[in-house]
């Protein structure tokens, strides 16, 4: 999902797909349930809660500035959850840096930090008390963690990490706490991610039998990545995709995004060519613009 505090949740339309989405401000992601022939549908109320939500950036993942702590305890006050609910939203997505939770990263036996787990549970309690659902999303702060997942020995340890986290959260309300395995596995993950995600599903399901899991395609979790993913044999999954087009608009000013990041003040929809944008904006020709759209790196939200 995108890097702003609020995200656009758009639905997936496809054969055997059920729409479970609603519009919000900002960038985009989509949720849909792919129902295998032999499967049973998710409970309608769980899907309704996923129709409109916001992303809680910079709280448990992605520090606001280099060198800051991995979490910002006072970043969101309890009163904000009531305001989010009053605005009509039904859920929040809670990105969590795995290195905050994992007590001794990449070692066996896998264990979670008791203090970090306690803080996360208190936050979840506050969210649920405001009549909101919560998606707990493992969200690495940098690409090095994602690369380690796919390095030798990494997949098995990441599966064990998810078994431990699912065990720690299995007594939460399965109707309102949803588990999302990994934000955007990263470029080049397509060969390994589908099978690894299947292993995570099996390990997490053994610990959290009734919870809904969010799964995604490889790479940057685009709609194309999702459509390339073969549905898993699990009845209680939500399939997720991220949508950023047009990149020139959604990533203007984003320092990590290459050419789009050098733009400011791009309107949507844009009715003028880049050369006629406010003074001081860099002119981008058609060819570089297409290159930026194809190659612009996605944010770590």
Could you walk me through the main structural features you see in this protein, from its secondary elements to its overall organization?
Helix 6 (about 155-170) runs parallel beside helix 7 (about 195-205). Strands 1, 2, 3, 4, 5, 6, 7, 8 and 9 form a nine-stranded mixed β-sheet that branches. The protein folds into two domains: about 5-245, Glycosidases (TIM Barrel, Alpha-Beta Barrel); about 250-295, no CATH class. The longest helix has 16 residues, at about 115-130. With about 300 residues, the protein is an alpha/beta fold. The termini are close together. Helices cover about 30% and strands about 15% of the residues. It is globular, with a radius of gyration of 19 Å. It has ten helices and nine strands. The chain has helices at about 45-50, 80-85, 100, 115-130, 145-150, 155-170, 195-205, 225, 245-250, 285-295; strands at about 5-10, 15-20, 25-35, 55, 90-95, 135-140, 175-180, 210-215, 235-245.
* Major sheet size, sense and barrel closure: 9 strands, mixed
Class computed from helices, strands and strand pairing: alpha/beta
Q: Which stretches are poorly predicted, pLDDT < 50 over at least 5 residues?
A: 1-28, 33-40, 279-301
Name the CATH homologous superfamily of the largest domain.
Glycosidases
**Radius of gyration using CA atoms only:** 19 Å
Instruction: Quote the beta fraction.
Output: 5-15%
Briefly note the CATH topology name of the largest domain: TIM Barrel
Global morphology: globular
CATH architecture of the largest domain: Alpha-Beta Barrel
Mean pLDDT: 80
Count of the separate structural domains = 2
The CATH C-level name of the largest domain is Alpha Beta
Say what oligomer this is.
Answer: single chain
Query: What percent of the residues sit in helical stretches (DSSP H or I)?
Result: 25-40%
Q: SSE order, as H and E?
A: EEEHEHEHHEHHEHEHEHH
Amino- and carboxy-terminal Cα gap: 6 Å
How many individual helices? 10
Task: Work out the number of β strands.
Answer: 9
